Amino acid sequence: xxxxxxxxxxxxxxxxxxxxxxxxxxxxxxxxxxxxxxxxxxxxxxxxxxxxxxxxxxxxxxxxxxxxxxxxxxxxxxxxxxxxxxxxxxxxxxxxxxxxxxxxxxxxxxxxxxxxxxxxxxxxxxxxxxxxxxxxxxxxxxxxxxxxxxxxxxxxxxxxxxxxxxxxxxxxxxxxxxxxxxxxxxxxxxxxxxxxxxxxxxxxxxxxxxxxxxxxxxxxxxxxxxxxxxxxxxxxxxxxxxxxxxxxxxxxxxxxxxxxxxxxxxxxxxxxxxxxxxxxxxxxxxxxxxxxxxxxxxxxxxxxxxxxxxxxxxxxxxxxxxxxxxxxxxxx
Length: 332
Prior knowledge:
Layout: H1 9-15, E1 24-26, E2 30-36, E3 39-44, E4 53-58, H2 66-80, E5 88-93, H3 96-101, H4 125-142, E6 150-158, E7 167-170, H5 180-188, E8 193-196, H6 204-211, E9 215-223, H7 236-246, E10 258-267, E11 274-275, E12 285-286, E13 292-296, E14 299-302, E15 309-311, E16 322-329
Parallel strand pairs: 4-5, 4-6, 6-9, 7-8, 8-10
Antiparallel strand pairs: 1-2, 2-3, 3-5, 7-9, 10-16, 11-13, 12-15, 13-14, 15-16
Helix pairs in contact: 4-6
Cofactor: Zn(2+)
InterPro entries: AspA/AstE_fam (IPR050178), AstE_AspA_cat (IPR055438), Aste_AspA_hybrid_dom (IPR007036), SuccinylGlu_desuccinylase (IPR016681)
Enzyme class: hydrolase
């Protein structure tokens, strides 16, 4: 077994570091290459010239365990021969230390440390890990041949509920065009809403989109729960979609999810910041016209038009950071 004495990839990652395993392992159908702790590449022996090159990441936040379990199940089926891999695949378990402790992060939110932002926080454990993941992703996509698709799905779950339980975030594309085919694929996976970011960010999906030229998405797939408490049937849509993708099977397509764009960020400038929303407000909650969404000293954020919604409200962040996003629908 490739992860012996551990039962599987997840158990091995939580229990050990990369140095406990050989650099590579050859199985009947494929070769496995360890790039680091929780960083595993799979290359089929017979790979079509224009096969997809796919990065699937989970566990960038240590309290978001269901996507990690989905990823681990997919890998187990690939190794057992129940899922015939027809793509070059990089699997990333983002934050093994936080996954083991059940914490979102140890020193700093890792999904705000990509695209070079880790250099601003050199003392954070997450900074070293973000830099390692960046290097691994860049190396992986650097050998993608011309004409092959570069795809990255960063799987997450959310702390709070959502009007749309499953939604995706498209990082700021600069001059790139939206990928309508991928949006239809996301719809087929049960994604209900799609947010188009309006500015660069320090997220993993922005890094792979902008720096690796991948079609990259952050997928929010439900509520964050500890290991052993996830109802994985609620993740059947994304699991089935990924299975078809990895096997190069015909995808299940659906109408494009509802489209939204980020309008502006709620920035917490000081400890005087107040968010005038219930602590349990759901993502995508409508904001009534004229409502004072938040205030911070002389700064007031006021809702306009009655069609805006709130996303990722978090007044507990440190001053200087984003405490929420105000979004609006994209006209058809």
